[in-house]
Amino acid sequence: MKFIVSSSVLLKNLSNINGVVASNPIVPILENFLFKIEDGTLTVTASDLQTTMTTQIPVDATENGSIAIPAKLLLDTLRSLPEQPVTFQIDTETFGTQILTDNGRYKLSGENPIDFPKIPAVNKNLSVELSSDALLDAINNTVFATSTDDLRPAMTGVYLNLSDDKATFVATDGHRLIRYRRTDISGSANTSLIVPRKALQLLKASLPEGVDVRAEFSQANASFSFSTTQLICRLIDERFPDYENAIPTNNTNVMTIGRTDLLNSLKRIMIYANRTTHQIRLSLKDNKLTISAEDLDYSNEANEILLCDYEGVPMEIGFNAKLLVEMLGNLSAKMISLEMSAPNRAGLIIPADKEENEELLMLVMPVMLNTYA
Q: Which of 52, 73, 112, 340 could form a disulfide with 47, with the two C-beta atoms 3.0–4.6 Å apart?
């Protein structure tokens, strides 16, 4: 079997799907890309059993065939080559592979493609057409807040609820919760599912801007198709926490402030906070916000005063600065509102200037301060 392909085109397509390949996979064959040629089209597949990605590249080939090629070795070779046509010569009996370039020859041993796991089928219970920009916004606004605790598998993915007029994306790790809604994405039926974090991070890395994405969902799997790439992942079969009841409704204390000013101040003050708890104190009174932190172990302390627009009773509330910085850093709004009801209840961060078709709510749990513990 023999085919010719552009080194840069092959490298770009392989780089898009390489994130699927695990460094220490359960089955050794998964360290390989599966190459399959049919009628002048090369389909490359990468899989870790939970997630599968495929990409298609037109090549100059005279016959059909398939082989599994070591992913790391091939990528390292392509990265070091200048742009040029490369020729792959494959012995279909021994799976020995040669890569021929203008001035070099590289030999590597492939593996039997029959051992590579089959691409899972997605029985289309529901399909949705959406723009890659809308999907990227949804992923960027939620995936960072998913949990890394495998003992709570439902929280390690993003919950997606599709109704006939909107799509709701929710992520939580128990300390914060993000609810992101879009009215330009909808489904024909009321469907709920949980998409794993790894699949969304792979989409985030490989989705181009301004293309159409076809999302298809079955009971067990989800498929996202765009350009010449397809990602199929196994959905998380768990019950997502009842997040609506966690969102406080009667928030009479509202602070409105510039996001960048608050973010920069928090970054400075958290340097002086306890290294373990990252605890900072927000004191609100008379349109003034005082941010303070102290680390008793090292006698470090700092505080800053910022002007804000505050409606409510004077109050002090504690937060984990690391969580606040990450949440504010993922926003693009110029002004944000922090809505609170009491020092021991969750605070809500809401962008003051909303984009069309979207609604974002960020919930962050407080930490106990000594003054009211």
A: 52
